[in-house]
Automatic annotation (TrEMBL):
Signal peptide: none annotated. GO terms for molecular function: catalytic activity. Gene3D superfamilies: Crotonobetainyl-coa:carnitine coa-transferase, domain 1 (3.40.50.10540). This is Dimethylsulfoniopropionate cleavage enzyme DddD. The lineage of its organism: Bacteria, Bacillati, Actinomycetota, Actinomycetes, Streptosporangiales. InterPro entries: CoA-transferase_III (IPR050509), CoA-Trfase_fam_III (IPR003673), CoA-Trfase_III_dom_1_sf (IPR023606).
Length: 764
């Protein structure tokens, strides 16, 4: 395998997916040059987004209700390494393409299923529309601090972005590559299940993690150090986010803006800001006036020159034309066979290769029929001899995790769940911030990687590592002597993982940013805010945790490549590329009109048959067709009204949500009551499935948090031990690298911290 061939060159994938989750997972594999055969249904007119979801795949049209076509599909699967599907549970079994049949015929098959709800979920038969999953997981609330004035907090809001499907695809693609790595040792395939409902627990992340003694904290707006969205002199907005345990970003910004004197009034005093709401309000008022004195572009240039996290709020179209997005390969052009020159998102992850892999346009349905059928006439592939052993894919591998906040640490947590020994490094003598949940299952040490003595400790760890993850600003790692080339020179087989806001390869590479900057730059905030003030999408950090999952996917690709070739890789992910993928179906431009979509906080759905309705006691989501609704006698009168939507509102308001959901789902429609997060995290099914778990923390007592979203049959991922207090494993870590006798001296030299450890469950 060479860099130009792609990491997954030679891997055969059958894509039986539909809508988003299955096709997207298969496309992530196709972008790494897996040979993906897309099986299309006959007669379907491909929508515009087909140009993205099915790019780089060979295609054949098969009617799986036809015996001859079904046998062709079975023959394809017998020759495949991977099968991807996202039908409702039971459909594949009825077709004779279920796990039992396919694995018996092809024991090396990795079978990935992404239904709306799991096979053992009481809701398994409910259509898993995005709105249904959003209602079931509380992903239909406006982010605190972004609601219009006078907003009813019980009212849901609808987003057209397929968040649950995207997370299922990200998780599924990672689990597939991890299972291929395990298969390289064992010779045995595996069955993966990532229901859309389950995948949302990866998105919920730290929002659902809390010490039981304190309870689930109320959702608060991010306003520390003056964070917020501000209107500028040109009428445009910027998203300013100088978060952190100190006010260094705020101080840098005020200095650059020429208002250093504000510090004398206490406006950069973090302890005072934390305890004095009037001082925080004064800072917000001052910043509001200050931002009104220059254009958004001027503020963006000033802030980024000062190293401060700030981004102008753009539209998705503007990001598609952005010079950085183009230079970084986050946006690419392909020559589509129907649409001509088409602009769409580039690869989700970046892997070091020479030359870089180019995006490939889609083929049209059935375009490759002759070649695919000819392949079926060749002998079945012979499985290469496998190495001895079984177990979790990354058992025995060591990861050094230098990342902070949410995205990078989430990748390390996922790797730990799949068997890796992860050592989390934080800086000593400072407040850690976000630590709980994302660092479950890791060992933890406090090491000053900037000092000479601390670097000697770090290099001892790297000398034993298979993976190094970091999210330093661009060129910072090089200044510390920890860049990829430095590490590769000493550890040639290392998989070096870089996580950033804007990604490599363009003029914005060195800019700082967080979740909100990623949403602002890529157009999500404009889409969510509708025609009014821009707003952050959803109650959960969709870019942070999405990027963490994609970073795990990129790492899995690097580790698979190493398992096959012995070579390491530098892999990269970014918040902005994740932001573009979250809205990929609306990020395709081919000179034609873009798809209409509901926008803004007031949106409840796409039409009267696919939207949120208020019942007598609470809101619920309905996903159906008019024909399905007309089959219910109680709704016929409403459907005959001049304004069917208003009539349905009145009918639904007369009954309770549970009753309506029961009647609607019994008739084969999608429906689900809106479930608040606190209710979700204590739901008996969620607890029994391990999607919400309790552990006992040495620091905080019993803690509740999301469990594991990915289910694997033969090699199930492990939860890992409870989150330790930062630095709690310091002596053990030092002993493991031969420095047990030097521990006290290293602490005296301020290279490590072993005592008076900071809290790990402190609010961030």
């Amino acid at each position: 395998m060479t860099g130009s061939e792609g990491v997954l060159h030679g891997i055969r994938v059958v894509d039986l997916g539909h809508h988003v989750a299955g096709p997207l997972a298969a496309m992530l594999l196709a972008d790494q040059r897996a040979d993906v055969v897309r099986v299309d249904r006959p007669g379907a007119e491909p929508p515009v987004e087909d140009a993205f979801f099915n790019r780089g795949k060979r295609r054949i049209t098969l009617d799986l209700k036809n015996g001859r076509d079904l046998e062709i599909a079975r023959d394809l699967v017998r020759r495949a390494d991977v099968l991807v599907e996202n039908f409702r549970p039971g459909v594949m079994d009825r077709l004779g393409l279920g796990w039992a049949e396919t694995s018996a015929a092809n024991p090396r098959l990795v079978f990935c299923s992404m239904p709306g709800f799991a096979a053992d979920d009481p809701r398994a038969g409910v259509p898993g529309w995005e709105g249904v999953i959003a209602a079931a997981t509380g992903n239909c609330r406006i982010r605190a601090g972004h609601a219009p004035d006078g907003w009813d907090a019980t009212r849901p809001t609808y987003t057209a972005l397929p968040v649950a499907s995207n997370f299922a695809a990200f998780c599924g693609a990672f689990a597939i590559v991890a299972s291929l790595t395990a298969r390289h040792r064992s010779g045995r395939g595996d069955r993966i299940e990532v229901p859309l409902f389950d995948a949302m627990f990866e998105a919920i992340g730290g929002s659902g993690a809390y010490p039981v003694e304190r309870g689930l904290p109320p959702e608060r707006a991010i306003s520390s150090n003056g964070s917020g969205t501000y209107r500028c002199a040109d009428g445009r907005y910027v998203q300013f986010n100088p978060i952190g345990a100190t006010t260094r970003f705020l101080t840098w910004f005020l200095d650059a803006a020429g208002v250093t004197a504000w510090a004398g009034e206490g406006l950069t005093d973090r302890p005072r800001l934390d305890r004095d709401p009037e001082l925080r309000l004064l800072l917000q008022e001052r910043l509001t006036a200050l931002f009104g004195t220059r254009t958004a572009r001027e503020w963006e240039d000033l802030a980024n020159a000062a190293g401060v996290p700030l981004a102008a709020v753009l539209t998705t179209d503007e990001w598609l034309d952005n010079v950085h997005a183009r230079a970084a390969g986050q946006v690419v052009e392909v020559e589509d066979p129907l649409l001509g020159t088409t602009v769409l998102p580039g690869s989700a992850v970046c892997l070091s290769a020479a030359p870089p892999l180019r995006a490939r346009p889609r083929h049209l349905p059935d375009a490759d029929r002759a070649g695919i059928l000819a392949d079926l006439g060749t002998p079945l592939p012979q499985a290469p001899p496998a190495e001895a052993g079984d177990g979790l894919p990354y058992e025995g591998l060591r990861v050094v995790d230098l990342t902070q906040i949410l995205a990078g640490p989430s990748a390390g947590r996922i790797l730990a769940e799949f068997g890796a020994d992860v050592v989390k490094i934080n800086a000593p003598q400072r407040r850690v911030g976000a630590h709980g949940f994302v660092n479950r299952g890791k060992r933890t040490a406090l090491v000053d990687v900037k000092s000479g003595a601390g670097q000697r400790v770090l290099w001892r760890l790297i000398d034993q590592a298979d993976v190094l993850t970091c999210n330093f600003p661009e060129r910072t790692a090089e200044r510390y002597g920890l860049g990829y080339e430095h590490v590769r020179a000493r550890r040639p087989g290392i998989v070096y993982v870089s996580v950033s806001c804007y990604g490599p390869g363009g003029p914005w590479t060195g800019r700082r940013g967080y979740e909100t900057q990623g949403q602002a730059a890529t157009g999500i905030m404009t889409r969510t805010g509708g025609d009014g003030r821009p707003a952050v999408l959803g109650p959960y950090n969709l870019l942070d945790y999405g990027t963490g999952t994609l970073a795990a996917f990129a790492t899995a690709l690097g580790l698979y490549h190493r398992a096959v070739t012995g070579e390491g890789r530098h892999v990269r992910t970014s918040l902005t590329q994740t932001g573009l993928y979250q809205q990929a179906r609306y990020a395709i431009r081919a000179g034609t009109a873009t798809s209409a979509e509901p926008r803004g906080p007031e949106a409840l759905g796409t039409d009267p048959w696919h939207r949120f309705y208020r019942a007598a006691d609470r809101w619920f989501f309905l996903g159906a067709t008019r024909a399905q609704l007309s089959a219910l006698p109680a709704l016929k009168h409403a459907l005959a009204a001049d304004d069917a939507e208003a009539a349905l509102e009145a009918v639904f308001r007369a009954g309770d949500a549970a009753g309506w959901v029961e009647r609607l789902t019994a008739a084969g429609m999608g429906a689900h009551a809106v479930t608040p997060l606190a209710e979700l995290m204590t739901d008996p099914y969620v607890r029994s499935r391990g999607l919400a778990v309790s552990q006992v923390s040495e620091e905080a007592g019993e803690v509740v948090m999301p469990g594991i979203a990915i289910r694997v049959r033969h090699n199930p991922p492990r939860l890992g031990h409870p989150v330790r207090r930062p630095g709690a494993d310091g002596r053990e870590v030092l002993a493991g690298i031969g420095l047990a006798d030097s521990a006290d001296a290293l602490e005296q030299a301020w290279a490590v911290q072993l005592t008076a450890l900071p809290g790990g469950w402190d609010p961030f």
